[in-house]
C-alpha cells in the first residue's frame, strides 16, 4: 500500500531558521497532528543560502525536510524526482515520501550515516555497494528507455553560450569545444550500438548518497534528483568516477565543511583495474546473472571506459550550467573542465581498446 502523499502550500526560508521552523511546524500540524508543537526538535544536516536539509523529531519519530536551493530547477527535474522517489520507496529502495511544499519535500528518516571517502575506498564496502546496486537494477521496473542523453541535452538547452564575466568567457571558449551537442551525439551513437541492459538507476552514487547502517550492516542510497531509467553500466561507471570526489549543488556545503574537498577531483584515487573487475563480478553475482561467466565480465569491462566517459560528459555539462546559475561560491567552470578532460581521456581509452 502506497504511503499517502500530501501537498502543502508553504515556503520554507533558506535564510531565517526561525521562519523555517515556524513553517515546518505549520506543515507538521497537518502531517503529524499528534505531535506536540512545543516539543518538536530540529537537527540540521546542511544549512546555507542554497539548500537546507534538517530533521524534525517528536519522541522517537523523525521526518526529514529538504528545502530546495535557488535555481536548482535548472538542472533538477523536480517532478521526475518525486515520481522516481515514490517508485523507489514502493520497492524498498528509498525512505517514504510524505509530501511536498512549495520549495521542498518531506520524507522519512533512514537510519545510518553517509560513508566517508576513505570508507568508500575500503574493499570491505565494495561488495555491499555492488550488491545494493544490483538489487536496485533488478527490482525496480523501468520502461526500457535510457534517458541519459536526453538529460544531457536538457542541460545543454539551459547553457547560455555567453558568460557574464569576460574571464569565464575566455576560459569557456579556450577549454571547451564549440559544439558540445556533437560530443553528445558521438558518444551516444557508440553506446546505443552496444545494447547494454537498461535498468532503473540512481545515476549519482557519490559518497554522500551512500548510507551505511552499522547495526544492520546494510547499504542504502539517498537523494534521487537524477534517478531515471538508464544503462546499468552507466550507474556503475558513474559510481567508479566518484571515488575521486565531487561536489553537487545540494551537497557542496557538506563537502566544504565536512570533507574539505576543494572541488577538483583526484582521479588517481579511483579504483584500480583489479578492484573494478571484482566490483563488476560481485554486481553480476548478486544480480540476475548469478551463473555469469568471465566473458560477460570481460564485455562489461571493455565497455566501461565509454560509460565512464559518458558520466564525465554528463557532469561536465551539468557543471557548466551551474557556473551560470548556482549561488554557491564555487568554481564550477574549472570543475566542468576537470570532468571534460576525463571525458576525453576515457573516450580515447575506449577507442584505443577497440582498435586492438
UniProtKB/TrEMBL annotation:
Keywords: Lipid biosynthesis, Lipid metabolism, Phospholipid biosynthesis, Phospholipid metabolism. CDD domains: ETNK_euk. Its EC number is 2.7.1.82. It comes from the Eukaryota. Pathway: Phospholipid metabolism; phosphatidylethanolamine biosynthesis; phosphatidylethanolamine from ethanolamine: step 1/3. GO terms for molecular function: ethanolamine kinase activity. One of its GO terms (biological process) is phosphatidylethanolamine biosynthetic process. The keyword Lipid biosynthesis applies. Belongs to the choline/ethanolamine kinase family. This is ethanolamine kinase. The gene is Cre-ckc-1.
